[in-house]
Write a structure and sequence with these properties.
The chain is of the alpha+beta class and 472 residues long. The chain has helices at residues 17-28, 45-58, 93-104, 114-123, 134-137, 169-183, 211-227, 251-264, 268-284, 335-351, 354-357, 359-371, 399-404, 446-471; strands at residues 11-14, 30-39, 64-68, 75-79, 88-91, 141-142, 144-151, 155-163, 241-248, 293-302, 320-329, 382-389, 393-395, 406-415, 419-429, 432-441. The radius of gyration is 22 Å and the shape is globular.
Length: 472
């Protein structure tokens, strides 16, 4: 390291309830966050490493190790350890080519781009799978990794892999922003105020719930989840991995989609969820019309601005909460009607503080599903049909991207342990919608999920036609 990574002494912090849950989930394969950048300018490795060091020095969470307390066996973070956690691994062109050949030889991977394949490879590389391992008890395990791959055609891939306990989607987006600034050697930096679990920052009274309410809500969640309709499972026995398919829309289509949301006072998450439900419903329709099917939709919302004290987007950690909603679909709903209904159900729950008051309940149910897969259909560990984020990531290319030679990037998290059938990570990049959709394979196949995305886009295009009729 070019400079001391921390001005503070090392200390240990116990994990909060949500972080504890991610400790268990990531070990099983859900919550490994990967951010992959493809660049056409040869990276300055020395500058890249220096930039990583700068970012790590600004963020105690990135300068932490995952450790297991030897006295009571509980997991904890070692903050500012004597040995910094970042390790930059340079993958040569020959090793990258060998890896790509191996990945392309698997099933339906032949048509997938090198960047896409490397992203999936990173999503399924799990240093945190052995939660009882010797290294976890002794020296601790780093919470993030950085790799640089040499791709064909004079391109390179810079990839970060992070543990969900320190990285929600906002953290991943801010990490990319800070990296681009550091690579251009801009002045300044972002110093975190602290390093605490989300539960410690919930405003007083917001998470309050009576014992009766806890019991009633737990019963409702449990009964509802049993009745949820799932996508058809292809293979419930083979070892699982996370794979990704992408849903893209051009500038005009994206503009019409956002205009339709604005007119109705809803957000993009509502219409993406509605398109997913309608596409899933149509995939199961055989001979019976108007057959009701119930689907689960999980909304993830960034709580930083609601916490006490409030946090900026440059406070790294996991500060999202989940709101689980259920919706019946008969097949006769229009896209916009269903989207409005789904979004309003989420908004009503959020206005009633369920993102805080139900946090413990949902963490408990998720933990029980991890411990007892048989409680879920076909031991699939599926918690809902789809997970969406309340707000999309919005990116506009500028000097930073041009100087880096940034051609493409994909950011998402794994979901082959406990989780939904499809997790949608939506980005509006230069006015165009780009969704990285993560699913558990071979529980679902790439062909199955690509077909689902085709049907989703058909539903969205049908919604546009309705918009045109309204304008006329």
């Amino acid at each position: 390291m070019s400079e001391t990574p921390s001005k503070f002494e090392s200390k240990t912090r116990a994990l909060g309830g949500t972080e504890q849950n991610w400790f268990k989930a990531v070990a099983g394969g859900t919550g490994i966050t990967a951010l992959a950048l493809q660049i056409s300018n040869e990276p300055n490795i020395s500058l890249f490493k220096k930039s990583l060091e700068k970012i790590q020095n600004d963020h105690p969470s990135l300068n932490s190790m995952l450790h297991k307390n030897t006295s009571n066996g509980s997991p904890c973070f070692i903050i500012n350890p004597p040995i910094p956690s970042i390790r930059l691994n340079i993958v040569t062109e020959s090793k990258t080519s060998e890896l790509l050949r191996t990945l392309m030889s698997h099933g339906s991977n032949e048509s997938v781009s090198p960047l896409h394949l490397i992203l999936e490879h990173e999503l399924n590389t799990n240093e945190w799978s052995d939660t009882t391992g010797h290294s976890l008890c002794m020296g601790g395990v780093p919470l993030w990794y950085a790799n640089a791959y040499t791709l064909p055609d004079h391109k390179w891939a810079l990839v970060f892999r992070l543990h969900a306990g320190i990285c929600d989607r906002t953290t991943a987006v801010s990490l990319l922003k800070e990296l681009k600034e550091a690579m251009r050697e801009k002045e300044g930096g972002y110093k975190e105020k602290g390093n605490m679990g989300i539960e410690e920052l919930i405003p007083s009274g917001k998470a309050k719930k009576t014992l009766w309410s806890h019991g009633k809500d737990m019963m409702a969640y449990s009964l509802n989840s049993v009745r949820f309709t799932n996508l058809k499972f292809k293979d419930v026995k083979s070892p699982r991995r996370s794979e990704v398919v992408r849903l893209k829309m051009n500038t005009q289509e994206t503009h019409m989609l956002l205009t339709g949301c604005k007119v109705r006072g809803i957000k993009l998450c509502g219409v993406l969820a509605a398109a997913t439900l309608l596409a899933a419903y149509s995939s199961k329709r055989n001979s019976s019309n108007n057959h009701r099917r119930k689907y689960g939709v999980i909304f993830l919302n960034d709580c930083r601005s609601y916490l006490q004290p409030s946090l900026s987007i440059h406070e790294f950690g996991f500060y999202h909460s989940a709101i689980l909603t259920s919706h019946e679909v008969k097949g006769e709903e229009t896209l916009w009607k269903l989207a409005t209904m789904i979004y309003m159900a989420f908004l009503n729950s959020k206005n009633n503080n369920k993102h805080f008051s139900d946090m413990g309940d949902l963490n408990f149910l998720m933990s029980k599903a991890i411990d007892n897969p048989s409680l879920t259909p076909s031991s699939s560990l599926r918690t809902s049909l789809v997970t969406v984020f309340e707000d999309p990531v919005i990116e506009t290319s500028g000097d930073d991207e041009r100087e880096l030679g940034l051609d493409d990037y994909i950011g998402c998290a794994s979901a082959h342990g406990v989780g939904p059938s499809i997790a949608i990570f939506d980005t509006i990049r230069d006015g165009q919608l780009d969704c990285a959709c993560v699913y558990p394979a071979p529980l679902h196949s790439r062909e199955q999920m690509q077909e689902l995305l085709v049907n989703m886009k058909i539903k969205l295009l049908e919604g546009f036609k309705m918009e045109e009729k309204l304008e006329i």
